[in-house]
UniProtKB/TrEMBL annotation:
This is Calcium/sodium antiporter. It comes from the Bacteria.
Length: 319
């Protein structure tokens, strides 16, 4: 019971902390005159991954590589199969062709790069630097390509910033939101990791399974919130863009930082099963989006069925 409450409390604190951090950062960016394009592309797109970042860093420092890597791999699987599946049921998902060609392909290539770097069963500091270099190149390319007035994808990232509902914030409130959000993220990550390890032991499953499922879904709640709100407002391209950007940052940014701080070892089940599910989900999403530049309700239902099958396999067959 104690472990379950700790896990739940950690998820709540991470969600609140991520919200506070994003809102404070967006408000601060507006006061500083940062462009809506950059705000949507970097602050919102990557800010929604802040719970994953803090949890994976804490897990890496605590020598819990199964949770550090499982959190990222599981989040990417959940982002596609669960979150986009749910969003497509609410509203068929459309996507800008330019964003699909760039962000979709980078997401797919990031998954392939991770698999290649982890072929020896671990992510070393050199691997981490390669991932971070890839992220820097992607950000530079994305900002350059979207800075042109004829780039429709720029309006998607600008709209992404607007999905974060803002109340007027003065400088003191911005500081409170940023500092408070960070404190909640750190505290929430500690509770989440404590509860996750305890739940895994109580259920008789590995830390990898908990990291890939419960922890991954819990840290993905900011992406779920932004994407669901966008789908309800019929801003489907914003929902898709948020997930593509989040998956890119999860692999190249979060794993890059985590593995640089502490080299990570890949557990056998992730090497033989989960990383291939992540790559397969990314490839299927690309196929769905390329056919008509949309994700239909039927395709969304298939994604949800795929996630249900993945969870069933994780707790019964592969655990």
């Amino acid at each position: 019971m104690l472990y379950g409450l700790s896990l739940l409390a950690g998820i709540v604190l991470l969600t609140l902390g991520g919200e506070g951090l994003i809102r404070g950062a967006v408000a601060g960016a507006k006061r500083l005159g940062v462009s809506p394009l950059f705000t949507g592309l970097v602050i919102v797109g990557f800010g929604t991954s802040s719970p994953e970042l803090v949890v994976s860093i804490q897990a890496a420092i605590n020598h819990q590589p199964d949770i550090a890597i499982g959190n990222v791999v599981g989040s990417n699987i959940g982002n596609i199969l669960l979150i986009l599946g749910l969003c497509a049921l609410i509203c068929p998902m459309t996507v800008q062709p330019q964003a699909l060609k760039r962000d979709g392909m980078v997401m797919l290539l990031a998954a392939v790069l991770f698999i290649v770097l982890a072929l020896n069963g671990s992510l070393a500091r050199l691997d981490a630097l390669l991932l971070l270099l890839g992220l820097a190149i992607y950000l530079g390319w994305a900002y350059w390509s979207e800075s042109r007035h004829d780039a429709p994808a720029a309006t998607v990232h600008a709209a992404e910033a607007e999905e974060v509902t803002q109340l007027p914030m003065g400088v003191p409130m911005i500081v409170v939101a940023l500092v408070g959000g960070l404190a909640l993220l750190i505290g929430g990550s500690q509770l989440l990791l404590y509860g996750a390890v305890g739940v895994a032991q109580a259920m008789g499953v590995s830390e990898a399974v908990i990291g890939l499922t419960i922890v991954a879904v819990g840290t993905s709640l900011p992406e779920l919130a932004v994407s669901i709100i966008a789908a309800l407002r019929r801003h489907a391209d914003v929902a898709v863009g948020n997930i593509l950007g989040s998956n890119i940052f999860n692999i190249m940014g979060i794993l890059g930082v985590s593995a640089f701080l502490q080299p990570l070892t890949l557990v056998e089940r992730m090497a033989t099963f989960d990383q291939w599910v992540m790559l397969g989900a990314s490839a299927i999403l690309m196929v769905f989006l390329y056919t008509g530049l949309r994700l239909s309700r039927g395709e969304g239902a298939l994604l949800l069925l795929g996630y249900a099958a993945y969870l069933t396999a994780s707790f019964t067959v592969i655990s």
